[in-house]
Amino acid sequence: MNTTALAGATLPGLILDRAGLRPDATAVRQWDRALTYADLAGAARALAAELRARGVRPEHRVGVCLRRRPSLVTGVLGVLLSGGAYVPLDPDGPAERRAEIVRDAGIDVVVADEETAALFDGAVLVPAPGGGRGAGDGPAGAEEAACPARPGNAAYVLYTSGSTGRPKGVVVSHHSLLCYALAFGRFTGADEDTRAFGFASLGFDVSVLDILVPLAAGGSVQLAGEADRADPARLQRFAAEHGVTWGCVPVALLPLLDPAGLPAWRTVITGAEAPGPEQVERWSAGGRRFLNCYGPTEATVCVTAFEASGRWERPLPIGRALEGHRAYVVDEDLRQVGPGEPGELLIGGFGLARGYLNAPALTAERFVPDPFGEPGGRLYRTGDLVVRQEDGELLFLGRTDRQVKIRGQRVEIGEVETALRAHPRVAHAVVEAVEGPDGARLVAFCTPGDLPGDELLAHCAHRLPAAMVPSRVVALASLPLLASGKVDGEALRALLGRAAPRAGRAPETGLERRVADLWARVIGVPADQVGMDDDFFASGGHSISAMRLVSAIRSELGRPVAAEDVFAGRTLAGLVAAVERAEPGDDPLPQGSPPTLTAAQRRLWFVDRLAPDSAAYNIALAERLRGPLDVAALRRALAAVAARHEVLRWRVPDARGLPYAEADPPGEVPLPIDDLSGDDARETRLRRLLDAEAGHRFDLATGPLWQARLARLAPEEHVLALTFHHAVFDGWSQRPFLADLARAYRDPDLGPAPAGFADYAVWREARDARRGAGDLAWWKEHLAGVPATLELPADRPRPPVQTYGGAMATAALPAGASEAVRALAARLGTTAPTVLLAAFGEVLRRVTGRDDLVVGTPAADRRHVAFQDLVGFFVEVVPLRLRMGGGQSFAERVRDCAEEFLAVLARPGATLERMVEALALPRDPARAPLVQVLFNVYNFPEPRLDLPGVTAERVPPGLAGSPFDLTVYVVERDGSYAVDCVYNPDLFTAGRIGTLLTAYTTLLGEAAAAPERPVAGHDVPGVAALASGVTGVTGVTGVTGTTGGTGAAGVTGASPSAPVPVSAPAAGSAAPATETERRVAGVWCEVLERSAVSATDNFFDVGGTSLTLVVVQDRLAELTGRRLPLVDLFQHTTVRALAAHLDGGTGRPLLGRAEQRAEARRQRTDLRRKRGRQ
Amino acid sequence: MPEQGWLVVVNDEEQYSIWAAGDPPPAGWHPTGFEGDREACLAHIDEVWTDMRPRSVRTAE
């Protein structure tokens, strides 16, 4: 920068020049409050005149205490124009802090507005535009005087946290301010059309970027007010409706805003702490510039920047020095170190502050002689540890001292400790920064052990800004010490995993438990420790986590709560009340809907068609009931529950290959009783009976789709076995089912349910219609390029048709691992199952050699409060994409998994089927589409059946089958975690699964104990054995050739571009050639609503889906009188192949057989009858 | 290892800092003559640097 050209010029002078050139251009806007440049200049001149009249001169420090309204900009500009230096005073911060700054800075004049004026004696009121001596009156006399400040005079003083226990004021000159505003504006392309995002607090140096950089460029500031800043949805709307084009978003907000909805925003700047690498792709899509900037307040705002785009999976560099700045990496003796060597970052250049106000020693220590640049120059020692990469970019590594960033703000831990020790009852206080869900949080450890934590937090809140107040106080009798006599920080952190007592009763209702789960996830405490009277902020919540909580409640419960509800309600009970009040989503709840199938139910119906002998989709439970049982009452109760929950009376017939639901009227529910009481081997017989029940084949068309059975072991000992088809039940349904059963046992009059499952189906269809396209687009992008299959090496060749066989194994975690998992989850603000998933992902990575893979997880779609206590199938299998960087620490992996969970759960509008279609994944009857391995995180305490005079105990039910190759269930037993694994024994031996579980639990124990170590460094026993085995399908060419495959190649090696038609060579004319081919083609055209298909088209390429394949099956049955197994249709996906199969199968021509036609007519008549009932 | 000695140094703007004794300070910086351990040098600066405005700012008034 040519600094001499600027001699004499000041930033306020430059802005006044802008006002002269374009007086009517907008300078500041906040909804309908806006200031033109003329308004701003007039009001600022008036303020400057008033300040000068009060004796303000250069070097005079003036307090600015203003609400976030456009007049805040007037206040800043007015002080600058007067020649004084502005000192922000936070109107919402603690009064003691303001008083301390007023004292330290020697402030005798404060600019305030009508609201904040009450905080000071004799404050100067910031003028409104056009009011008083504004622009309209024309400047006169002293008002006309240009800014009298010289380049070296102070422009502002910003207070940052000080390690000695007092805040320190950083004095920045007009020269630094002007140079920075112009250079950064040029670098980021700010101009007259820029509409800047005004988000940062005035006390934070980024506010200079937000406000003064765009004004220097002639652009405008879109100043977000308090309410809009506190709520992610409002902030999104603010940015969209103000057409923000440019600006800085705090790192913690990046994931909460949706860049796709902000297309005007072309330059996004972030920094102050490390952004999540995954944010780069979101924000840089469509050519938007994404800049990761770095700079301390002592160097004005930004001194380095890194421009990133595309996919990032490792920490973002902070880049290189910007124009006018220099960056040196030095050792302890201030000698430069080479690339790859860590060292302290020193900064030189125009941005360097003058120093710390009234702190000569501190200034001399941090601003040191510059051995590399101009004579007499200084460098600022940042205290930041960095490394210059081989490519020249700087990477931030950490601090050389105890400064931390809390929500982007600098905090000296020493200052927090000093504040705590000032409390009369505190003997010793140590503060640790602990990694949490939004980066670091502060935890205070204090002695003695009977300190009131709440009082200490209040004490801090009176003295310190919000970011510096610890999120939690742990009172201890004594602090653990190392041999050296220092406090043992590791030992202190280890205490954090321990349960804190919850306040109030435990959450009980469905809604309470859902809100509590989200609450726990956001704050980072175990869900079972949350009480209804817990205070959000006392539990470690803060403004950003409140935004995350609101976001989660909106997306997962469909309730439009606002951040204010968290602030106003404070307790979980208060928040639940707000959620209850909030109108659910945009889709009204339908009432009394006729039986309607959901997409997920149709998928189960299809699987049932595909594998008619499997019971994989059964859910079995069994309760041992001790005490006098009233069997008649139990029968009545079963009937009452089925009467209340219509879905329990559903069955799913089909009409010409299209499934539909029918409900039977309420009636008795059979309860057969097996009397085993006289049998010596009754437990063995019971086990056989439970196995038989669990393996029962439900006939979807005829129903019922659930059944109950009672085994009598003794006059007062029974086992109640309940078996449901998944199509009408899910894991969550257990609680309402058993609760209603218990109520009805006492009084069979249950009353109607708040909604029926059919209402859910209709509601869901409306919801998916509204947001399905958007969600599907997200999924398509999210899953782009994902491997279509996750093939674990097996012991047996994969059967060409998935078998759904089931076997089970279980493994407990090693000693101490459960505590470590819990502690890590709490520390990172996530759930224990997320930690378990991260470890499972690493095992899969080692075993398969893939660092990008998909596992599924079930998600409960009970987003409307009326669905919370309904029985039914509300579960969707959701793919989780695990992208694992080799160098990542375990903690990073866990954080990634947590992000992935949050991201996918927020997109319920697209079903797995639609994703499979959208991604054009190959269809393969040998395996489930997209998700072959399921990770079940559902971890709720198993409900018990509560009958009067009877004690109930869960009995392990029989095993139904395995819908996936492998399913991992995280379970909690006796306070420790264990892993249950259901697998398909047609693929895997028990030995292999045992090795896998050992590998998994061993890795989990090690990684959870050392979460900061690279996860790839941990030993995984048995990996070599697990990585070898059989992959692929029996007769692999035959099957890969017929899977169609236009999408990503599966690991079986199916080539997406060259499927090998096995049964029908593609040679010759593509037009259907034989009579059978023409008939088959005719059926296809009818079903797919196409005018023609060629003999070699793949069914799934010309619009066919799994479900329409069933319709083809049905039509062919009408034509031929013979119902082909669905799997045959899967394996012959061209007209030619299918026709050959049909002809070959009978050995005779397909058609021309009169009796077949007659059969077809009979079937059609039958179907018309069925439809008539529909 | 004995405590390293430090110098109090000043530039033409009369801004103070410290520099490790042994090597001459960079161009444009002059030793004030005060020498001692780090703490002593910083304490000395606290005493003598009473007007922290750069000299060019002070003299322009």
SSE arrangement:
The complex is a heterodimer of chains A (1174) and B (61).
Chain A: H1 11-21, E1 26-30, E2 33-36, H2 37-53, E3 61-65, H3 71-82, E4 85-88, H4 95-105, E5 109-112, E6 124-125, E7 154-160, E8 168-173, H5 174-188, E9 195-198, H6 206-216, E10 220-223, H7 226-229, H8 232-241, E11 246-248, E12 267-271, H9 278-284, E13 289-294, E14 304-308, E15 320-321, E16 325-330, E17 342-349, E18 355-356, H10 360-366, E19 367-369, E20 378-388, E21 394-399, E22 403-406, E23 409-412, H11 413-421, E24 428-436, E25 439-447, H12 453-463, E26 472-475, H13 489-494, H14 510-523, H15 543-557, H16 563-569, H17 572-581, H18 599-610, E27 618-626, H19 631-644, E28 650-651, E29 654-655, E30 658-659, E31 662-663, E32 673-675, H20 682-694, E33 706-714, E34 717-725, H21 734-746, H22 757-782, E35 807-812, H23 817-828, H24 832-848, E36 852-860, E37 875-883, H25 890-905, H26 912-918, E38 933-936, E39 951-955, E40 966-973, E41 976-983, H27 990-1009, H28 1023-1027, H29 1036-1042, H30 1075-1088, H31 1106-1120, H32 1126-1131, H33 1135-1146, H34 1154-1173
Parallel strand pairs in A: 1-10, 3-4, 3-5, 5-6, 9-10, 9-11, 11-12, 12-13, 25-26, 32-33, 38-40
Antiparallel strand pairs in A: 1-2, 7-8, 8-18, 13-14, 14-15, 16-17, 17-20, 19-20, 20-21, 22-23, 24-25, 27-34, 27-39, 28-31, 29-30, 33-34, 35-41, 36-37, 40-41
Helix pairs in contact in A: 1-2, 2-3, 5-6, 14-15, 14-17, 16-17, 19-21, 23-24, 23-27, 24-25, 24-27, 30-31, 30-33, 31-34
Chain B: E1 6-11, E2 16-20, E3 29-36, H1 38-48, H2 55-60
Domain Carrier (chain A): 506-583, 1071-1146
Protein name (chain A): Amino acid adenylation domain-containing protein
GO molecular function, one term (chain A): phosphopantetheine binding
Uncertain stretches of 5 or more adjacent residues of chain A: 1-5, 132-143, 1035-1068, 1147-1152
| Total helical elements of chain A | 34
Mean pLDDT of chain A: 85
Helix content of chain B: 25-40%
By CATH, the architecture of chain B is named Alpha-Beta Complex
Protein name (chain B): MbtH family protein
Domain MbtH-like (chain B): 1-47
Pfam families (chain B): MbtH
Region (Disordered) (chain A): 1146-1174
